[in-house]
Amino acid sequence: MDKKRVLIADDEPSIRTVVARMLEQDYVVLEATNGREAVDIAGRERPDAILMDLMMPEVDGYTACSQIKADQATKMIPIIILTAVGHEFNRKFATEMGADAYITKPFTPQVLQDAIALLLVKAASGQDSAA
Description:
alpha/beta
């Protein structure tokens, strides 16, 4: 079976590296250094899930999430916000922008794996029922 593809959008190279190492055994990992790249890669590559930081240069995570969810071609891709910003307001706003889950840093590999697996199952069941 082909591995699912996960896009990591974070401007911190160390975070992308750590998350990629957590996921590379189970997923093909794509990387974006800012929100604009994340939107471009999502449109071109159609990953199975996206992990998105909120605070990034050029286009922030809120805007990128909103743009991805507004596009017919990418709106079904689950987006998990990965951020150090844990305030309830930020969580609510990210959800309003279309985020499917919200995880605050630091996080464990198990929390990340569980969140991705749950959203992939939900996405698969949603796509199957729409087909």
